[in-house]
Amino acid sequence: MKRSELQASLETLLECGRFNDYCPNGLQVEGRESVHRVVCGVTASRALLEHAVHVGADAIIVHHGWFWRGEDARVTGIKRQRLGLLMAHDINLFGYHLPLDGHAELGNNAQLGRLLGWQAEGLAAVQPLVHLGRLPRPMPAGEVARLVAARLAREPLLIADPQRPVSRVAWCTGGAQGYFEHAIAEGVDLYLSGEVSEQTTHLARESGVAYLAAGHHATERYGVQALAQWLRDVHALEANFVDIDNPV
Predict the structure, then answer these.
(1) Distance CA 46, CA 93 (A)
(2) What pLDDT does 233 receive?
(3) What is the pLDDT of residues 224-233, one digit of tens each?
(4) Which end of the chain has fewer CB atoms surrounding its CB within 10 Å, N or C?
């Protein structure tokens, strides 16, 4: 399909205009006009770009793209190397940050909830990126952590008494530790995100709400995988997810 057709289809699907984001969403670097083979990944790292070149991809679609607000705008060093590699091989780069977090079906949060088997009950009132739900059955926080570890193949960090009973949960993938207080206000027993900050420990202890840091990369692999499947099903594109290992 044509690049412009793919761009318009993704824009409609992900409703990019709804989000005030930290980066441009959509086509970030223009490449060749015709798109057949697509590589999907979490982050537009050098390793992902090199894989795309190796397999002859026409486009790369990621959750973490480029040109973040507040970063140095100069194209030097690593930024120059990445951009040069992409442009030398005429590959398109599409990035979808908050739109791929917030999509009701394909989004990181929706997909993670399904993967974990949590029963979705809605969104937080103040911060609608935070999903609310319930476990299939009440269980201790330590057991929740073990089940998350098994599903994500990564050991999470639990800040709570492992015996603390958990029934209602909230979650928001990636670096959403700053939304912890919104989850607390919703009366949940446990909040899951990707990262954890120093002050999060004290907030968990003082609020009595368990905090589970399951990994930024580990929690954000699933939206872009679902998007790759959508591209195969809807547009018959050759779209494959490539997981570049990241322990964070």
Answers:
(1) 13
(2) 98
(3) 999 999 999 9
(4) C
What tokens were used for 219? 């929690």
Tell me if 140 sits within 8 A of 166, measured CB to CB.
yes
Write out the DSSP string of 160-189.
Answer: S-TT-EEEEEEE--SSGGGGHHHHHHTT-S
Give residue 3's Cα distance to chain centre: 24
Residue 131 lies in a domain: yes
Phi, psi of 3 (to 5 degrees): -55, -45
Quote the number of domains for the chain: 2
pTM of the model: 0.97
Strands 190-193 vs 210-213: parallel, antiparallel or unpaired? parallel
Could you tell me which residues are beta bridge partners of residue 12? Answer: none
To which residue do tokens 């997981």 refer?
A: 243
Q: Are 167 and 206 in contact (CB under 8 A)?
A: no
d(CA 43, CA 243): 9
112 plus 31 within the same structural domain: no
* CA nearest neighbour of 38 among 75, 92, 74, 88: 92
Number of helices (H) and strands (E), helices first, in the chain? 10, 11
- Supply the CATH number for residue 127's domain: 3.40.1390.30
* Beta strand ranges found along the chain (DSSP E): 26-29, 37-43, 59-64, 92-95, 119-123, 131-140, 157-159, 165-171, 190-193, 210-213, 238-241
